Amino acid sequence: MSEKQSVVIIGGGPAGLTAAWELIKDGGADRFDVTVLEGTRAFGGISRTVKHNGNRMDIGGHRFFSKDERIMDWWKNVLPLQGAPSYDDKKLGREHDLEPGGPDPEKTDKVMLKRHRISRIFWNRHFLDYPISLSPGLFKALGFKLTMKAGFSYLKSMFHKLPEDNLENFYINRFGRQLYSMFFEGYTEKLWGRHPREISADWGAQRVKGLSVVAVLKNAIDKMLPKKRSNQEVETSLIEEFWYPKLGPGQLWETVEENCEQAGVKVLTDAQVTEIRQEHGQVTSVIYRDSDGKATELKADQFISSMPIKDLVNALDAAKGAVAETGEGKSLVPADMKTVANGLPYRDFVTVGLLVKHLRIKNTTDIPTLGNPPIVPDCWIYVQDPGYKVGRIQVFNNWSPYLVKDVDNTVWVGLEYFCEEGDDFWNLSDEEATQLAIKELTRMRIINGPQDVLDSHRERVKKAYPAYFDTYAQMPELVEYLDSFGNLYCVGRNGQHRYNNQDHSMATAIEAVDNIKTGKTSKRNVWSVNTDKSYHESKKG
Question: Taking a C-beta distance cutoff of 8 angstroms, is the pair 341, 309 a contact?
Answer without folding.
Answer: yes
